[in-house]
Design goal:
The protein is mainly α. It has one domain (3-72). It has helices at residues 3-7, 14-19, 29-37, 59-72, and strands at 43-45, 54-56. It has a two-stranded antiparallel ribbon. Helix 3 packs across helix 4. The radius of gyration is 13 Å and the shape is globular.
Length: 76
């Protein structure tokens, strides 16, 4: 992992817990895109069968999803 990412204080598993997805499963990119596109306060349905069925989008959830999406796109 890049050195600047290691310096950021990231709580591991918080996004998984907030979405109701277990730690051993990956968060689908389709769900991350749906969270980022939604406005805070909207309730979205999980497009996959993993985790909770309805998710209320908050600003913090949107930020966490955006960070997860950006970190997934970083080349190793």
């Amino acid at each position: 992992m890049a050195k600047w990412i290691q310096k950021i204080y990231i709580k591991k598993g918080v996004l998984h817990n907030q979405l109701g997805i277990s730690q051993d499963k990956k968060i689908p990119m389709q769900l991350l895109n749906k969270i980022i596109a939604a406005k805070p306060g909207e309730v979205i349905k999980n497009p996959t069968s993993i985790g909770k069925r309805r998710i209320t989008v908050t600003r913090v959830l949107e930020k966490r999803a955006n960070l997860a999406k950006n970190l997934k796109n970083i080349k190793k």
